[in-house]
Each structure stands twice: as structure tokens, then as C-alpha cells.
Design goal:
Elements: E1 2-3, H1 10-38, H2 44-70, H3 73-78, H4 80-93, E2 100-103, E3 106-111, E4 116-118, H5 120-137, H6 139-143, H7 162-186, H8 192-209, H9 213-232, H10 235-243, H11 256-268, H12 280-284, H13 293-324, H14 330-354, H15 372-392, E5 400-401
Antiparallel strand pairs: 1-5, 2-3, 3-4
């Protein structure tokens, strides 16, 4: 008798991988088309240089994604602290004058001469690898007595017992410490949008891994209170944070870019005005090829195109969600989850900002916004997702001969 153990639907997992790859590549190709028309507001020389620079980064992103697709995830676990240390060192180096580059008062880039590296994007990769490994190693501390607040033998709160304190320290305090360490180095930029994105991704990974709500809710409220105090004492950020509430009243000041972006959606209508025929991106919307490129899509290609772009990101999430249910272990599940969230949640935040649903913040639209570093990092995230799916498709047990 031959005993065979097969995972459910290995062919389907390959289909999910192919779907994610094709959807990501379609976004990158469409991004090049949009970049060419969005850069029409630039001078002819700058427009050509920006387009060809973005075009150069597409194959680099493909090679980086293939490298992360083939990387040994178990080896990455062994090098996790080196990865974290390298990312933190790069983010600190970006703050050093004559090494880092300041753009609009933010120190986020390292100038290598022939290209600029956005150091905060390295923190995203470090967060996915390090936090996934830690949550997998400390699973017994996150899941133990998850729904038990009081001991059966006494009325003493569980968290104040010796076992409860160990579970809290190993299963919650240390993961939060890793998240805060990365957020602290990103704050050197400062890059508030990336900090919030990393906290959202890291918090979701922790919740899915089994961290108790009894720890999460007070920490979330404490963080929300701290964020509120920070914004209230940071006048520039406070004006930007509140400008999205009344873009018409502040369209000549802090909400200028948001207002012009929303006008672009309005004049685009259902089918748009045609490629390179937009007026907002050409004359009124500053830096249209970067964070507000979604407005250019709305003006030139209309509601149909913007809806299709949103559906493509939704398709990436759906394929990854269906596949990660078959993950071989919690580590690979969290790597797949974290990389997917950085792809999809970043897109969701960007579209929310551009449409006025969220406060204005500089977060790029993955694969479409101008920027080489972000394009390469997003390629790496796709590679990590496909890597996890590839390993999940392998049979858990090899066929063995057994006597009846």
C-alpha cells in the first residue's frame, strides 16, 4: 500500500502565482505609459530623462524580484539581524549631510551619484523578515491562553502571573519593540506615512499570529493619543492633516494639490480625455508623475481605468490570500502576508489620499508612481510572495511504501 499526502490544489497555487506575476507586470507596463503622459508638465529633456530612468528600473525590479523568488527563506531567517542592522544603518546614513539628500526638508535618500536609494523602503523588507521570524518562534507565547483573562485557580489577572508576564514579554512587548525600532529610524527622515504604513502592516501580522486583543487595544489607544499630541504640536503637519477635511476652502494653500487632483477626476469623467490630453497634470497639478499619478489616470483614462487599477490590486490580494492559506509554516505565512500588505495597503492608502478620503501624505502608488527604489522594493515584495507560494506547493510528505 502506498500512503500519499498531497496538499490541496497544488495546481491552483501555481495559478495564483501566475496571476500575481501577470497582474504586477501589467501594473508596471501601464505605469510606464502613464509616466510618459504624466511627465508632460516637465520640460522635454526632463520628461525624457524621467521616462527612460523609470524604464531602466523595470528590468532591475524584475531581476530583484526573481532573486527574492529564489532566495532561501530559511537562510534569510539566519541573517535576520544583519538585515535589520543594515536597514537601520542605511536609514541613519540618509540623515548624514553630504551622504543623504534632503528633498523638501526630508532626509530619506542616499546619493550614490548614478542613483538615489530611499532608505526607508529597506525598513519594509527588514520588518517583513524579522517580525515574521520572531512571531513564528514565539507562537507558543502568543497563542497560549489567548482567550483566558483570569486564572482558573485564582482571581488574579493572568497578565500579572509569572506565565502571563512571560507570554506578554515574548509574544507582545518584543515584537512591538522591533516595530518601534524600525519606526524610530524611519522617523529620522522624517517619513510619517511610511511609519503609519509599517505600523499597520506589523500590527496586522501580530494580530493574525495570535497576539491578544487585551494587549493590542490599550497599545493602540496609547499610540493614537501620542500621535494626536504629536500632530497638535507640529503645525505644518497639523495643517496638512486637516486640509483634506475642507479642500475647497483651503484650495489655495495646503489643499492645493489635493483640490487639483480631485478636479482631475471630475474632468476625466467615465472614459477620460485621452492619453497626454490632460490639462490638470500639465498645468495645475504639481509633481503629477509621483504621488498623485492616480489623478492623472482619472483625468486621462477616466473612471473605467481607475476602477480597473483598483481591481488589479484587489486581484493581487485575492490570489495571495487564497495561496497563503496553504503556507507550510507560520513564518512563511507571515512573510507572504506582510509582503502582500505592503503591496496592497500602500496602494489603498495612496488612492485614499488622492481621492480625499485620507489626510494628504506622500505615499507612492506601487508600480505606477515615479521612483526607482520603490519600484525595485515592490518587485522584491512580489518575489517574496511567489517564493512563499512556491514552497507551499511542495508536498508536505514524500510517498512512502508501507505494508498493509
Amino acid at each position: 500500500m502506498v500512503i500519499k499526502e498531497q496538499q490541496e490544489g497544488p495546481g491552483a497555487l501555481g495559478g495564483y502565482s501566475l496571476g500575481i506575476l501577470l497582474l504586477a507586470m501589467s501594473l508596471a507596463v501601464f505605469g510606464l505609459v502613464v509616466q510618459y503622459s504624466a511627465g508632460i508638465s516637465l520640460s522635454a529633456s526632463n520628461r525624457t530623462a524621467a521616462f527612460y530612468r523609470q524604464l531602466t528600473y523595470v528590468p532591475i525590479a524584475f531581476v530583484a524580484g526573481f532573486a527574492f523568488f529564489r532566495v532561501n527563506l530559511d537562510k534569510a531567517r539566519e541573517w535576520r539581524w544583519w538585515i535589520l542592522g543594515g536597514a537601520c544603518f542605511a536609514m541613519a546614513l540618509a540623515r548624514v549631510p553630504h551622504v543623504g539628500v534632503s528633498v523638501n526638508g526630508s532626509w530619506r535618500w542616499i546619493d550614490f551619484g548614478f542613483f538615489r536609494l530611499q532608505a526607508s523602503d529597506l525598513g519594509k523588507l527588514a520588518l517583513v523578515v524579522v517580525l515574521s521570524d520572531f512571531l513564528a518562534r514565539m507562537q507558543r507565547h502568543t497563542l497560549a491562553n489567548k482567550f483566558t483573562i483570569y486564572q482558573l485557580s485564582s482571581r488574579e489577572p493572568y497578565v500579572f502571573t509569572r506565565r502571563g508576564w512571560i507570554d506578554c514579554r515574548e509574544g507582545f512587548v518584543k515584537p512591538v519593540g522591533i516595530l518601534l525600532l524600525i519606526a524610530g529610524f524611519i522617523a529620522l527622515g522624517p517619513d510619517l506615512g511610511t511609519i503609519l504604513l509599517c505600523c499597520a502592516v506589523g500590527g496586522t501580522m501580530m494580530l493574525v499570529s495570535g497576539v491578544r486583543w487585551a494587549y493590542v487595544v490599550p497599545t493602540f489607544l496609547l499610540g493614537l493619543g501620542g500621535f494626536t499630541v504629536l500632530i497638535l504640536n507640529w503645525p505644518n503637519r497639523l495643517r496638512r492633516f486637516t486640509s483634506f477635511l475642507e479642500p475647497w476652502e483651503k484650495r489655495g494653500d495646503e489643499a492645493y494639490q489635493l483640490f487639483e487632483g480631485m478636479v482631475a477626476f471630475g474632468v476625466g469623467g467615465l472614459t477620460g480625455k485621452g492619453a497626454a490630453n490632460g490639462i490638470q497634470g500639465r498645468a495645475y497639478l504639481p509633481e503629477a508623475h509621483t504621488d498623485f499619478v492616480f489623478s492623472v489616470i482619472g483625468e486621462e483614462y477616466g473612471l473605467v481605468a481607475t476602477s480597473l487599477v483598483a481591481l488589479v490590486y484587489l486581484g493581487i490580494f485575492w490570489c495571495a490570500y487564497r495561496a497563503m492559506r496553504h503556507s507550510a509554516d507560520l513564518y512563511r505565512f507571515n512573510v507572504c502576508l506582510g509582503a502582500t500588505l505592503f503591496l496592497v495597503l500602500q496602494a489603498l492608502i495612496n488612492m485614499g489620499v488622492v481621492t480625499g478620503l485620507l489626510p494628504t501624505k506622500g505615499i507612492s502608488l506601487p508600480f505606477i508612481s515615479y521612483g526607482g527604489t520603490n519600484l525595485v522594493i515592490m518587485g522584491c515584495m512580489v518575489g517574496l510572495v511567489l517564493n512563499c507560494i512556491r514552497e507551499s506547493a511542495r508536498p508536505a510528505f514524500v510517498a512512502k511504501e508501507a505494508r498493509a
